[in-house]
Design goal:
Layout (H helix, E strand, L loop, with lengths): L2 H15 L7 H9 L2 H4 L5 H16 L29 H12 L1 H8 L9 H106 L17 H7 L19 H10 L20 H9 L4 H26 L5 H23 L1
Length: 366
Amino acid sequence: MNISHILFNNSRIKHSARFLKPPGFFKRAEMREKPHRRTGPFENPVRRFVRLREKARLFSQLPAPRHVPIPKPILPTLLKPLEYVPKVSPEVLERRLEFLLGDKAKQQQLHAKMRPGLTPYQAELYMWERQMRDLRRVYRAQYFQKLNEVTEEERLRQYNLYLKETKEKFAKREEIRRSIHEEKKRKAILRDTMAIEKKVTQSLELGRLSSKKIKNIYWLNKLQGAINYDEDKNNVNIEDINVAKLASDLGHPAEDSKEIRQKIMTGNLFFRKILKESFELMPEDMFRYEVMDEETLTPEERAKLTYGVLTDEEKLELLDKKINILNEKIDQDSKLKGKSKENLYIQLRDHLEAAKLAYLEKSVKS
């Protein structure tokens, strides 16, 4: 079969495959409205039969869909125990084997019973064949017993190996699960730490902003006091032009600014308005914590009340825990930001280490 014939068959198969699918929406609509456009006004029944027969023949030549073989999964099975193992004692088999391989077997052949119709040779031959059958049975029994022993050892080894692999797989899965949980825990702690640090930074920024606002107020007050009004040579009295004075001059009811009791500062109303707006209480101006009484304890008295009940060993242990906590915080900051920007933690750790070293030196000298 040449290549042109193969290509011709393929083209015929492709052409016949066009008729296997049902007509589409527009094809059905056209055949319903104008059927003669596809079939002709008067189709020859013979040609129609030939066309359908050719279509069926080409369809029969289409190959079946490809069947992809899927291999069955390999299920690891343990070695099965032997069946029909002889239950004869090895000592009995050993004694029987010793008898069959010794001189007593020859004596048994010589003392074989004579039966009618047997020659002495046949009697010895039958006894010898019986001994050979017993010998094969003994060997077979010993072989099966040894094979059973080796099989049990191999089954025990396979079972131990199966238990070991199962434990290793379980430990590996547990390790992967534990690492995933540790990673999630670390991310959660990191996220919470960053949120807390963000809030702390925001509170510090608000504190700086409020202090800056207070400084601006003080600077504005100083600027107000430093203004030098131009005085005329005729010593004309220049009064402040304010809204209340202009309203009263124009006949509108207005309260005199001098009669206002809650007056912040005297002077120009422009500065007064700025001061009033500046002195409004903002959320960042509120106290974050409750104001403690002035009669508080000194740091020494507070430390004595807090740590006075502890022994020296407990104090040293508590000091070591605080130093470890500070070291972890410094390491975490260095991992997050590349370098610890909070020098307060480093100074506090140095102070604690110095206090611990001083206490240890004092205890050694004493």
